[in-house]
Amino acid sequence: MKDKISLFSKIKSLPEFLEIRRTLLQGKKIVFTNGCFDIIHRGHIEYLSDAKTLGDVLVVGLNSDESIKRLKGLKRPINKEEDRALTLSALEIVDFVIIFEEDTPLKLIKAIKPDVLVKGGDWEVNQIVGADIVMREGGEVRSLPYIEGYSSTSIIEKILKKFTKGERG
Fold first, then answer.
1. pLDDT at residue 153 tops 90
2. Inside any domain, residue 83
3. Which domain holds residue 58?
4. What CATH number is associated with residue 127?
5. What is the pLDDT of residues 115-141, one digit of tens each?
6. How close are the terminal C-alpha atoms of the chain, in Å?
7. Does 99 map to a domain?
8. Cα separation of 111 and 101, whole Å?
9. Which of 41, 77, 119, 139 meets the CB 3.0–4.6 Å disulfide criterion with 123?
10. How many structural domains comprise the chain?
11. How far apart are CA 162 and CA 128, in angstroms?
């Protein structure tokens, strides 16, 4: 069983990750994805598992709390960034988590230069931020299958609907 120190050791700043890539990950195929990962669910797990099969190292860019507020409104995120990062780092399939403050992961993608850039199937390849950069560098961009009905937003809506009707349990 992993201890807290090893879980937190997967959470890196961009400069920390770049140093690890330079020194320890030479020759490894880097897969990058990003998102809010507000409420981890089956769709996330299957998506991240599929992403991991595309390379040796899976790096997840995680939107900061402030970034999510700008993108999804003031009532989000439900879970704070430290909790979301720790939850992701507890997954064996995730190798590194990097929290970013911007609305898009473009800065991370430019710096990391992943071999494979992935997003969920609700994104067309030409809509994926940084796709042009990755392809120009000879990398691959993939849109992975989306599992219908699994999103943090739909889970929140389901909870609200259930409890505003006064249902219990």
1. no
2. yes
3. 4-164
4. 3.40.50.620
5. 999 998 777 888 899 999 999 999 999
6. 32
7. yes
8. 15
9. 119
10. 1
11. 34
Question: How confident is the model at residue 121, as a pLDDT?
Answer: 75
Q: Tokens 């069983």 map to which residue?
A: 1
Angle at 39 between CA 80 and CA 146, to 5 degrees: 135
**What is the C-alpha separation between 93 and 82, in angstroms, rounded?**
19
> Does 169 reside within a domain?
no
Give me the count of residues in the chain.
Answer: 169
- What is the SS3 assignment for 128? coil
Instruction: Identify residue 45 by its one-letter amino acid code.
Output: I
Per-residue pLDDT tens digits for 76-111: 999 999 999 999 999 999 999 999 999 999 999 999
Structure token pair of residue 104: 């898009």
DSSP string of 39-70? S--HHHHHHHHHHHTTSSEEEEEEE-HHHHHH
Structure tokens belonging to residue 156: 């929140």
Q: Flag whether 145 is in a domain.
A: yes
CB 81 within 8 Å of CB 64: yes
3-state SS assignment for residue 115: coil
48 touches 91 (CB < 8 A): yes
